Amino acid sequence: MAATPLLELRGIDKSFGPVQVLHDVGLSIYPGEVTALVGDNGAGKSTLVKCISGIYTIDAGTVTFDGNQVAVNSPRDAAELGIEVVYQDLALCDNLDIVQNMFLGREKKRGLVLDEPTMEQMAGETLASLSVRTVKSLRQLVASLSGGQRQTVAIAKAVLWNSRVVILDEPTAALGVAQTAQVLELVRRLADNGLGVALISHNMNDVFAVSDRIVALYLGRTAAQVKTTDVTHSQVVELITAGRSGTIGLPPEKPAGAAGYTDITPPGADA
């Protein structure tokens, strides 16, 4: 497993008016690994992802990418670093085909004319690099694709632009068993290709199937960062629902955002 994070967040705070949503949050994403981001509804997962992608600017804290401290103040800043997010709604256009969706807003041109052959070649090479075999034609309308195929196209679109970190928001939420298996295989393949992958999921089976590390958020705080092999389902559920696990015995003084476990006692809870 990689020793140095590709993307690392430390001490991240984010407030909306008087409401503080993120408190001293830490998150590390490593190249060649899948990091699962878990937490109950309202834990701060979506806000954190929007801070990473430049939709929201952070109030405090540092963001380090590839060993250098960076400022991510817009989605363009994130894209230039190589950070792509695949949101749950996928942001695909049903009336366009696969190639048109993958290049939407970033079309290749030859003079004033769209360079269709180049775009089709690049789309095909990207899907082939991910060993995608479920798409029959690159010129299929997205409206004709299954849920798993749509998710595949959205992920391929994210990695088309030399991305280094891909964040996936509930990629299997609306899929059946077979399609879920296909998407999880693709998620694992992204990491095996050297990308840093963050997987947001409520499905513990998915988390344990593909992740190398788990980051649990509780009430806007990092409850733990831990290797997946070091915890059980029940321990992760306890972190999600209570913010700590009594069966995890590492010292509570370990700093938030550090590798390993971080035990954070919620305000007002017994120590």
Automatic annotation (TrEMBL):
<dbReference type="GO" id="GO:0016887">
    <property type="term" value="F:ATP hydrolysis activity"/>
</dbReference>
<keyword id="KW-0067">ATP-binding</keyword>
<dbReference type="InterPro" id="IPR027417">
    <property type="entry name" value="P-loop_NTPase"/>
</dbReference>
<feature type="domain" description="ABC transporter">
    <location>
        <begin position="7"/>
        <end position="244"/>
    </location>
</feature>
<dbReference type="InterPro" id="IPR050107">
    <property type="entry name" value="ABC_carbohydrate_import_ATPase"/>
</dbReference>
<dbReference type="InterPro" id="IPR003439">
    <property type="entry name" value="ABC_transporter-like_ATP-bd"/>
</dbReference>
<protein>
    <submittedName>
        <fullName>Sugar ABC transporter ATP-binding protein</fullName>
    </submittedName>
</protein>
<dbReference type="GO" id="GO:0005524">
    <property type="term" value="F:ATP binding"/>
</dbReference>
<keyword id="KW-0547">Nucleotide-binding</keyword>
<feature type="region of interest" description="Disordered">
    <location>
        <begin position="251"/>
        <end position="271"/>
    </location>
</feature>
<dbReference type="Pfam" id="PF00005">
    <property type="entry name" value="ABC_tran"/>
</dbReference>
<dbReference type="InterPro" id="IPR003593">
    <property type="entry name" value="AAA+_ATPase"/>
</dbReference>
